[in-house]
Write a structure and sequence with these properties.
alpha/beta
Length: 361
């Protein structure tokens, strides 16, 4: 009986330990690893090695768990046969079950609860407190079970997904985002931003640009004082400048530049003389590429042309931010949102509303 109890407790105990180690290892976050390395903790480098090649510690843990469960089951079964023999439990005078079957069922139940559910729950909830001890135990297991770990890695290396093939798809991330929002792990605004970022590559400049017909422009031959008189309450920081008409835009002037010349009493300067060159992009350009272009060129606005090289509108950094956030931010042009939408409908070939005739070009 003593050997039966010993085999039983050893099997459950080692399985309990392996389940806690596995839960702790998988619960440790990259942030925690980074903090431990930054603070010079004794477990920082070990954790970094474990997380970078997580197959090794997992192989050691699962090897010990398998050995414990297998030897435990064999030992308990053999000792049960020795202690109880072929005797059976009688119920109402009828032989009901053998003692071996009862002990096997009890062991299965204990493995499920005591060595799986309970330790993994403890490891997942208290991983930060258990991490230092877990690291030390795993290091010992890696040394003791080195041949088994090597064999496990050799086998899994042959079965791994081919290099470069993604394990998770964009659709998987979308589902995880929706689940995180439903469970409260993500705020509604956070979920919206993540979804917009995942769809980012499918959006083109023409989807977010401001159509040409509602772009506020000014002639390159206009003097600064005349422009200020006409646009006294200007709500834009950058104004496109055209040479002949608003389809031949040659650049833009910045509101700060206008104010600087006004302060220096240069109000008779022509807008064309203080204009800056403007980027020109295709309406079919992905806004991910546009964002890279803006950041590289340190620009905030670009002219948009179609396949025939006709000017069809302008696009700004604010348009990209609006797309990411999934809402219209409060920018200097926010009061013109309605005109934007009406013009976009017209540009897409719909019947223009009568009120559109009143807009500035």
């Amino acid at each position: 009986m003593a050997l039966l109890i010993t085999f039983f407790l050893l099997a459950i105990g080692f399985s309990f330990l392996c389940s806690i180690l596995e839960a702790v290892l998988l619960s440790i976050t990259p942030y925690y690893v980074g903090i431990q390395q930054h603070e010079g903790s004794s477990i920082g480098e070990d954790l970094a090695h474990f997380k970078s090649d997580i197959d090794r510690p997992l192989a050691a843990i699962l090897t010990l768990n398998t050995i414990a469960n297998t030897l435990g089951a064999v030992g308990v079964g053999s000792q049960a046969a020795v202690v109880f023999g072929a005797t059976r439990i009688q119920l109402f005078g009828v032989n009901f079950l053998s003692w071996e079957a009862v002990i096997a069922g009890a062991m299965t139940l204990c493995i499920l609860t005591v060595s799986e559910i309970i330790p993994k729950t403890i490891g997942a909830n208290y991983w930060e407190q258990l991490a230092p001890l877990a690291v030390r135990i795993i290091k010992i297991l890696l040394w003791v079970l080195a041949p088994f770990v090597w064999l496990a890695q050799f086998i899994t290396a042959k079965l791994k997904i081919e290099k470069g093939k993604p394990i998770l798809t964009r659709n998987d991330f979308l589902k995880m985002t929706n689940l995180g929002q439903e469970t409260g792990a993500l705020e509604v605004s956070e979920g919206r931003i993540i979804r917009n970022l995942l769809r980012f590559t499918k959006i083109q400049v023409e989807d977010v640009m401001t159509p040409r017909m509602v772009v506020v422009t000014a002639s390159a031959q206009m003097r600064l004082q005349d422009f200020i008189q006409q646009r006294n309450n200007l709500n834009f920081s950058r104004i496109p400048i055209y040479r002949e008409d608003d389809s031949t835009i040659i650049g833009y002037v910045h509101k700060d530049e206008l104010l600087k010349h006004l302060l220096n009493k240069h109000d008779d300067v022509l807008l064309g003389d203080i204009s800056k060159d403007m980027l020109s992009v295709s309406s079919e350009l992905a806004i991910t590429q546009l964002l890279d272009l803006f950041l590289h060129k340190r620009e905030h606005m670009a002219l948009v042309h179609d396949a025939e090289n006709h000017v069809v509108g302008i696009v700004t950094m604010e348009d990209i931010i609006e797309t990411v956030l999934g809402l219209e931010p409060m920018t200097e042009a926010s009061e013109n949102d309605e005109w934007r939408e009406l013009a976009r409908q017209y540009w897409q070939g719909r019947q223009p509303p009568e009120s559109l005739d009143q807009t500035d070009s």
